[in-house]
Amino acid sequence: SSGLTQDPAVSVALGQTVRITCQGDSLRTYYASWYQQMPRQAPVLVMYGENNRPSGIPDRFSGSTSGNRASLTITGAQAEDEGDYYCESRDSSGNRVFGGGTKVTVL
Amino acid sequence: EVQLVESGGGLVQPGGSLRLSCAASGFIFSDYSMNWVRQAPGKGLEWVAYSAGSSSAVYHADSVKGRFTISRDNAKNSLYLHMNSLRAEDTAVYYCAREFWTGYIYYMDVWGKGTTVSVSS
Question: Are B35 and A37 in contact (CB < 8 Å)?
Fold first, then answer.
């Protein structure tokens, strides 16, 4: 299967740590990339490869991969981190695929 | 400044056609692969189509295969999505996104603001 599975929603207390996971067979071959999307805005890349942050993304964001599971961790979550997070990868046919998204709520 | 600007969205009847455009600036367009990604109201992101930078390779999602066609004009720094036989379920915001890849790492690092397509009678 080329699908990517994410938990629909997670919540985290302000300043605490939250891990968002993404599972799929394609992750055994290709790294996941991660996107943050705020309401009514375009997605923004926040993580790619094993653990690479684009310029401007805070270092409280980190990534990891193990087997068929990729994770995005926010250490010390802030109110502005609240939003939807999507993982993305590709399959052997060249198709790109997104996970269903995880809604992060900061309490 | 690296920028992508989509246009061409609108209201169209079921069975109709539309062509979306994405104007790129601030980078060498032909050096990059490009994607169309859509988001239906209240739903998640869905990859639609891919176009390689300087080769003719294109891929389309099964949900649009045979109805949508991605194309590009590197001389005009533009990406297109030709949409035919539109259905209500094609209603979405359509984003174009630049792709970068190296080895087994792929990611979409630049996104436009999107253009809205509504399919309704």
Answer: no
